[in-house]
């Protein structure tokens, strides 16, 4: 009873599962065992799904925590960038202060040099003035010492030194303290230079520390970037689809591009042929105009050969190019079907066997069309060769006739010239010969017209050939389009067959995977657990790194604050330097005023010197006047002396006793004479 009940229950369960076959009695135990295993597997699958949902929820929570950490990292990066910008601003300010201090130092050094030069110039000028005054004083003393101090000639007291201080005013006297102002300024400038060098050394050390801090900040940025890249690599976005672009679309696009390229090439060839035709027509018209203008048979022969060669070469090249293109295109079309099938990676399947005869018929039809095109090309080539041979023969005959006619006409002209030179009775013969020449010219014109007609016939044949080539290209394009349609149908059937094969493969794969589904779920669950533990471990590592970076960032902030305090001290020192520079500027202005005062005193010295020189000139004039008076007095003294001598001689001659009495009675003239003699002796000695 229990066995039948179990059999009925198992039959009902199998019917619910979709198995409508009768269950044999000997397979009840096996089927019940399989159903129990299936139930256990389904329960395990549900548990795994629940654990998967829980793990996904935990993963989302962890991702939210990581997003928060990423936001904090972004804020720290922004703060780091702002600190870096502030550091750059401080460094620029320090550079500006250093440049200004160097400029002030250079300017003060220039001012000090100017003051030193001005002081040296003033010293040199004052020394020169004192030297010139001493020389003038010595010259005056030398000139005045020539006068006799014991005589009664009034003279000036020039033994005292020449005082030039009375020429200066009390206001312009130079104080002794102002003279040493330049030395004081130079010493102050040297002290400022030493202080500026000390500040520059301090600024260089602060710059080195700032560069070290910037390098640390850059290293922290690189570490943050590395952490972000690891975090993004740990949580990649799985948004890329598994579907690939079908090959059929690529092949259709390739066929469209190939058709457009062929159309463009055909259009370019037609345009090139039209251009060559126009060029040939233009050359023919130019040759015709030149021939009409020249009227020379040799030129006509060369023009005919040139036009014939150009037309033949053009027709031959166009025909060969068109035939080569048609042959290559046919070969490409014939080879495209197996190549595309091989590129698609499909072999000819069995279900497509009813479609193969149609494709074979298309291929045979294309081959016949290709053979027809080849035969047409051979026929066209033979016709062109025949036309060229006939044209060459006719042109050679025409050229030969033209040469013979030209030679005959030249011989006739020479004969006529000789006959006209020999005798005038050959005029009738000359007229007949002229008529013959005119007939020959008429024949040449007719031959020219015939050649034109032949050329027009050749051009018509070339046009026919071009039309045939165009028709063959159109037929080739139609064949290409039909082949493309057949190819698209064939590829569509191949795609359908491939889809069916893919569906069959998927079903087979799903059936094969049904057996090992439980193991895969277990492996996935273990992988999820391992991944979750790895994520937790990396999250802890990130937290630790974040704490370390936060502490290092705090140290960087402290270092930056120290730098800012140093920069404030540098600014205060720079302000003090500026105040010192202003004070030095005031001292410099005072020194400049002192220089102006010295220049004014120099002008007064010059005025005193000029006045002293004027007085010297007056003294010179007085000395010259005194010398003139002295010479006059010498003359008078000599005259008195001679007069007294004559008187004495007379008195001695008259009476010596009376002369002695006279001398005793009048001692003064004798003393005067003796003094005059003494003075004359002294002057003569001098």
TrEMBL record:
It is found in: Cytoplasm, Cytoskeleton, Microtubule organizing center, Centrosome, Centriole. Residues 347-359 have a biased composition (Low complexity). Gene3D superfamilies: 1.20.5.110. Residues 38-100, 182-209, 245-283, 363-450, 560-629 form a coiled coil. It comes from the Eukaryota. Residues 335-362 are annotated as: Disordered. GO terms for cellular component: centriole. Residues 335-346 have a biased composition (Polar residues). The keyword Transport does not apply. Keywords: Coiled coil, Cytoplasm, Cytoskeleton. Signal peptide: none annotated. The keyword Transcription does not apply. InterPro entries: Centriole_BasalBody_StrucProt. PANTHER family: CENTROSOMAL PROTEIN CEP135 (PTHR20544), NUCLEOPROTEIN TPR_MLP1 DOMAIN-CONTAINING PROTEIN (PTHR20544:SF0). Belongs to the CEP135/TSGA10 family. This is Uncharacterized protein.
